[in-house]
Design brief:
53% helix, Rossmann fold, 11 helices, Arc Repressor Mutant, subunit A, alpha/beta, elongated
């Protein structure tokens, strides 16, 4: 059974190239593409069967990725939205996750990893490249690592870290030193098997430790 994919990106050459790439993957087919979020929503409205997954560029004219992800989530809750961008700053990534995206992929992703990501998003509902890259090196994750114990202070830190606050602002709000905050961060990186704030945030959301 084919998994249908939608694309929205204002760079037409990139979008066409990506469409050809996705169509080359077994079991995947691009069923709709658009140059911005507004055009995408217009096309979705007349489709008899919307795509299962939609890859969204963050920066688009007329209607950007954040607004588009929110609109899709409200009108088409079964569609899995995925951010695909050149931007890799924490604020942009967390904003897209808060808008409803289940994954955040960079445009320089290797085709093999993109295919794997689409497969996992289809079957599991998410894809965290940070966890995959670490686990690929470790080869396996123990049950203890998969279900770590999170302290109350770490839960508070996670909630604040899954926002647009800087670590310095998180420290101030928790009335703790930045060194203590660094300790929470490193502890959670280890517990979640991740290497970045974004990977940590995605794992926290996936494990229902944080609601955004």
């Amino acid at each position: 059974m084919e998994i249908t994919i939608g694309l929205a990106d204002d760079q037409q050459l990139f979008m066409q190239s990506l469409s050809l790439l996705v169509d080359s993957f077994p079991s995947f087919r691009v069923s709709v593409n658009a140059l911005n979020g507004q055009l995408l929503l217009q096309q979705l409205a007349i489709m008899s069967s919307p795509p299962e997954i939609i890859l969204l560029d963050v920066n688009m004219p007329v209607m950007d990725g954040i607004a588009t992800a929110r609109a899709i989530g409200q009108s088409y809750p079964l569609i899995k939205t995925v951010a695909l961008s050149m931007k890799d700053d924490d604020t942009t990534i967390i904003s897209m996750l808060k808008a409803g995206c289940c994954s955040y992929l960079l445009k320089d992703i290797h085709p093999t990893e993109l295919e794997k990501a689409l497969q996992e998003i289809s079957t599991k509902g998410y894809y965290n490249a940070d966890v995959y890259n670490v686990n690929h090196r470790r080869l396996m994750v123990t049950q203890k690592e998969a279900d770590p114990h999170i302290t109350e202070k770490e839960r508070i830190f996670l909630r604040l870290a899954c926002s647009d606050r800087t670590y310095k602002q998180v420290a101030a709000e928790m009335h703790l030193s930045e060194r203590t905050i660094d300790g929470y961060r490193e502890s959670l990186f280890a517990k979640f098997n991740v290497q970045s704030r974004v990977g940590m945030a995605m794992e926290a959301i996936r494990r229902n430790l944080v609601t955004i």
